[in-house]
Design a protein that fits this description.
This protein is mostly helical. The protein has helices spanning 4-12, 17-26, 29-43, 46-58.
């Protein structure tokens, strides 16, 4: 059995929104909403924003 956080980790690592949305639809329905919430939390986490800003500063 795969846990919602594992699904979320795989989904967040995908490059495009279309890929992420398609992958989320493949998550079992009873885990989908929790997985979606984990994805949003990871996507909006402050550390992710700091990494993005650091990459932009090096460009």
């Amino acid at each position: 059995m795969t846990w919602p956080r594992e699904y979320a980790r795989q989904i967040v690592a995908m490059r495009t929104r279309e890929e992420r949305n398609a992958a989320l639809l493949e998550v079992p329905e009873h885990l989908r909403e929790l997985t979606r919430r984990h994805c949003l939390n990871a996507w909006n986490h402050p550390a992710r924003q700091q990494r993005k800003e650091a990459r932009q500063a090096h460009e």
